[in-house]
């Protein structure tokens, strides 16, 4: 039986979280870390300790098991990496250094594994000769086995990859001293339960365990029972920091979503870097092709792309190459919350498809059946056969995100919370904007309709309630849709160009390009050049047909641009005035009193040339 949760999803019944303490000196130098680590910290320009770092690092250095909760972007990665690096360096200094794996860091996604690896190597840059760090999620099995043969000090992997190498004896955990599970609740939601049980059998007793997450839920009892021994609970409440996210919703029609996002990006109503969340992969490419019609550049991030391509997209976004990412959130975090699409009739006050205005069954017989009918089972997790180790809403460090735009609303308030956590990180402010489809407007524009939009209002009610518990407010974005009437004809032109065939071809073209770039297939193409030729010349794929005139926004279409049209432009004749040279010569001649102007243009001999002597001009030679 699950225990009751408080407002932060922390079990109250038996476990009490240790409150955050405010250290007298919140600097890294006060922690007495190795000078080489302090150099790495200085190079990364970390100025002061965050609350999770100030509380977790001393506890980990003392050898305690730690279960910590802190919001996204609060520095949890450095909070466990710094003490682990310090303890490894101290152990090597006090004992004869031997090649063995001392720390295993488990993460739910490959993108997060790459990010943690980057942070670890940057912090240990001045002691790289003493600490070897390996990420075993990117290359193929043979390359990974070769890396593990060197017994790196720190191994970063997903639970699935770890089990593979434990089974083939490439990875040894005999000398393991530290085990970290980052985004622990997300690891469980991705369906790694069996893998974690297998890993627990290989982990020796007495290993220090650190669980980090943005939420503490009863599901984490599974991990605590598997790995922890009386952990110290850290619940870092940063309510003031979370208020830096301004949350707004816009209620609109299905086609008006596209109208709004076009106007917002084209008119620079949303500035700086933006992550746009959509419902599925087709929706990604539909929106990308739509924005291309207006010259708005964006990139796509979804589970269909190879892992190297996804990592490259994140890197390019962080380097400001792209300002807009259109991403799918295919593994939404549901936790203990019901999936609104699974229990939508109850959420919307419906039973058996018959609903009256009060939200109760019309037929008393239906009402009796509804009472007898068992309640739907809550769905804890949702897994997909597509790229289990892919996720955007959690873990990945998108830098300097100014706005998170929920083009399609998620199906749970948990997923919404983690989506908006991509902005307002590291003490900065941000905005979250969500498009809501009212129930009466659902399926009114079928070409742009999306199934989950039917339950937007029910999901919004849950989101509003959850955010109020956190001390935040979801407000309506005051936007006058009438001021965008001038853009509607352009909207129709652009949507007509983005057909299903164009979307399918765009997906195929992008996958083909990634196949040609793939390092794994390079050798295959060298041995089979015919396969590469077929890939390159298997018909020219066309994206949506571009209309150049849509890129330009005339003044009269701008909101408030009526004044620009009403300005006095003078008389405009129906006929085009002649402005040729002959006309000018006649005008000048009249002014000088001359009645005839000699033509200065010489006759073109080629135009009067006749090869037959006499005959029709222009006869063929």
UniProtKB/TrEMBL annotation:
Residues 26-54 form the DEAD-box RNA helicase Q domain. GO terms for cellular component: cytosol; nucleus. Its EC number is 3.6.4.13. GO terms for biological process: gene expression; ribosome biogenesis. Residues 1-25, 349-386, 590-621 are annotated as: Disordered. It comes from the Eukaryota. CDD domains: DEADc_DDX56, SF2_C_DEAD. Residues 244-482 form the Helicase C-terminal domain. Residues 57-234 form the Helicase ATP-binding domain. Residues 15-25 have a biased composition (Polar residues). PROSITE patterns: HELICASE_ATP_BIND_1, HELICASE_CTER, Q_MOTIF. Residues 372-385, 590-600 have a biased composition (Basic residues). Transmembrane segments: none annotated. Its main location: nucleus. Residues 1-11, 360-371 have a biased composition (Basic and acidic residues). A motif (Q motif) lies at residues 26-54. Keywords: ATP-binding, Helicase, Hydrolase, Nucleotide-binding, Nucleus, Ribosome biogenesis, RNA-binding. It is found in: Nucleus. One of its GO terms (molecular function) is RNA binding. Gene3D superfamilies: P-loop containing nucleotide triphosphate hydrolases. It catalyses: ATP + H2O = ADP + phosphate + H(+). Coiled coil: none annotated. ATP-binding RNA helicase involved in the biogenesis of 60S ribosomal subunits and is required for the normal formation of 25S and 5.8S rRNAs. Belongs to the DEAD box helicase family. DDX56/DBP9 subfamily. This is RNA helicase. The lineage of its organism: Eukaryota, Fungi, Dikarya, Ascomycota, Pezizomycotina.
């Amino acid at each position: 039986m699950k225990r009751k949760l408080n407002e932060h999803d922390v079990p109250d019944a038996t476990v009490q979280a240790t409150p955050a303490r405010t250290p007298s000196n919140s600097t890294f130098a006060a922690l007495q870390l190795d000078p080489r680590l302090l150099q790495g910290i200085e190079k990364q320009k970390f100025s002061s300790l965050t609350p999770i770092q100030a509380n977790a690092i001393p506890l980990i250095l003392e050898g305690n098991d730690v279960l910590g909760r802190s919001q996204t972007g609060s520095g949890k990665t450095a909070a466990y990496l710094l003490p682990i690096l310090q303890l490894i360096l101290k152990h090597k200094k006090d004992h004869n250094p031997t090649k063995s794996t001392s720390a295993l860091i488990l993460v739910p996604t490959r993108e997060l594994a790459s990010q943690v690896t980057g942070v670890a190597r940057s912090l240990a840059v001045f002691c790289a000769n003493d600490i070897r760090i390996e990420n075993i999620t990117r290359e193929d099995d043979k390359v990974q086995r070769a890396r593990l043969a060197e017994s790196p000090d720190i191994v970063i992997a997903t639970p699935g990859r770890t089990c593979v190498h434990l089974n083939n004896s490439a990875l040894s955990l005999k000398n393991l001293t530290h085990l970290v599970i980052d985004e622990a609740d997300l690891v469980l939601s991705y369906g790694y339960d069996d893998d974690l049980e297998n890993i627990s059998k290989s982990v020796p007793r007495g290993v220090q365990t650190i669980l980090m997450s943005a939420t503490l839920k009863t599901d984490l009892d599974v991990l605590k029972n598997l790995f922890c021994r009386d952990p110290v609970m850290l619940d870092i409440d940063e309510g003031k920091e979370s208020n830096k996210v301004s949350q707004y919703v816009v209620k609109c029609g299905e086609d008006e979503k596209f109208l709004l996002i076009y106007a917002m990006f084209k008119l620079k109503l949303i500035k700086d870097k933006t992550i746009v969340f959509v419902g599925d992969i087709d929706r990604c490419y539909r929106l990308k092709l739509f924005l291309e019609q207006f010259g708005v550049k964006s990139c796509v991030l979804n589970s269909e792309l190879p892992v190297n391509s996804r990592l490259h997209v994140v890197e390019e976004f962080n380097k400001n190459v792209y300002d807009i990412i259109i991403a799918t959130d295919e593994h939404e975090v549901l936790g203990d919350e019901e999936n609104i699409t699974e229990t939508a009739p109850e959420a919307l006050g419906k039973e058996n498809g018959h609903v009256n205005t009060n939200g109760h069954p019309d037929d008393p017989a239906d009402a009796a059946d509804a009472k007898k009918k068992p309640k739907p089972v809550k769905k804890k997790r949702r897994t997909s056969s597509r790229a289990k180790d892919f996720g955007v809403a959690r873990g990945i460090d998108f830098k300097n995100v100014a706005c998170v735009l929920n083009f399609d609303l998620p199906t749970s308030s948990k997923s919404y919370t983690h989506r908006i956590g991509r902005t307002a990180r590291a003490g900065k402010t941000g905005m979250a904007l969500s498009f809501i489809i009212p129930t009466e407007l659902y399926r009114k524009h079928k070409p742009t309709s999306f199934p989950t939009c039917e339950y937007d209002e029910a999901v919004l009610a849950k989101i509003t309630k959850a955010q109020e518990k956190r001390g935040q407010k979801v407000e309506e974005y005051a936007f006058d849709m009438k001021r965008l009437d001038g853009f509607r004809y352009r909207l129709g032109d652009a949507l007509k160009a983005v057909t299903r065939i164009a979307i399918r071809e765009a997906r195929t073209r992008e996958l083909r390009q990634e196949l040609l770039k793939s390092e794994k297939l390079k050798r295959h193409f060298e041995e089979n050049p015919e396969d590469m030729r077929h890939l390159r010349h298997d018909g020219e794929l066309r994206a949506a047909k571009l209309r150049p005139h849509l890129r330009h926004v005339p003044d009269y279409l701008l909101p408030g641009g009526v004044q620009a049209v009403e300005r006095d432009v003078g008389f405009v004749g129906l006929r085009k005035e002649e402005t040729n040279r002959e006309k000018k010569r006649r005008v000048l001649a009249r002014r000088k009193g001359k009645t005839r102007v000699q033509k200065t243009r010489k006759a073109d001999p080629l135009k009067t040339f006749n090869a037959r002597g006499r005959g029709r001009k222009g006869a063929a030679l």
